[in-house]
Amino acid sequence: MLSVKPVSLMYLRRKFMKQSREGVYLKKEMSVNNSQHLDSTVLAYVMKTLNDRYDYGLKLVLLSIDEGITGYRDDSLESVKRNEKDYGIPLKILSYEDLYNWTMDKIVKEVGLKNNCTFCGVFRRQALDRGAALLGVDKLVTGHNADDIAETVIMNETISPPVILDIIHSGECMRLKKEIKLPPQGLCKKCGYISSQEICKACVMLEGLNTGVPELGIKKSSKVKDKIEKLSLQCSGGSCNSGGCTA
Ligand SMILES: [Zn+2]
């Protein structure tokens, strides 16, 4: 059983109270880079502990994405299922295969090892949005390990949880300068999920995979630009044959 030191729990409780007054739902994402899934498991434990201890009355749901990587994800999905039992929180597993009709194994065969991480990252980001919509939740919580920061701190200072949390907190307090404008957030014309472009990156990449042009969405050539514009026009005309088309 994991244990969280009181100072950490108090800090997290303050963050929790500050950032969410109405309800928080738990997203469970297994980190590709974390073989022991510690970040997500700690997050699940902390959220459940806070919810039980302070009687927040939240409905927590675990969401896990199966990218379809043989020999990797199968093991970690077993860990997620154990979390479901240990914490008594319902679990939803969504796969790339169901969502996109592609697994990462198939994508690697198509695009090779060089750019496959781009596909995985873009698809996973949207898979989480889709999972949230499917579960009807309005908040996602993600766990990210601070191993690199922690190692740096531990190498230079006495081991002290507040020091690590202070560093994390300072990162969270970073703000963009007022003069920097972010692209407006809208909805993808094709799939209807959040995007800052007319056609989201996931749809562009999917189109590339389905039409034998996997570099679509990775390279920025005029040929690629033409294809994206064509896709956008198809959606505007309602002829893209996408189930999620918003045109
Ligand atoms: Zn889209």
Task: Give your account of this protein's structure.
- Keywords: Transferase.
- InterPro entries: CTU1_C, Rossmann-like_a/b/a_fold, TilS/TtcA_N.
- It holds the Pfam family zn-ribbon_14.
- The protein has a two-stranded parallel sheet with strand order 1-2. The chain has a two-stranded antiparallel sheet with strand order 3-4.
- Helices cover 51% and strands 6% of the residues.
- The protein contains ten helices and four strands; from the N terminus they run H-H-E-H-E-H-H-H-H-H-E-E-H-H.
- It is mainly alpha-helical.
- The N terminus and C terminus are likely disordered.
- It is globular.
- Bound molecules: zinc ion.
- Zinc ion binds next to helix 9.
What does the average pLDDT come to? 74
* Rg from Cα: 20 Å
How much of the sequence lies in strands comes to 5-15%
Order of helical and strand elements: HHEHEHHHHHEEHH
Number of strands: 4
> Given the helix and strand composition, which structural class is it?
mainly alpha
Number of helices: 10
As a percent range, the share of helical residues equals 40-55%
Sketch the major β-sheet.
Answer: 2 strands, parallel
Cofactors, ions, other ligands = zinc ion
Strand order, largest beta sheet: 1-2
- Low-confidence segments, given as residue ranges, are 1-7, 20-36, 243-247
**Cα-to-Cα separation, first versus last residue:** 50 Å
Shape field: globular
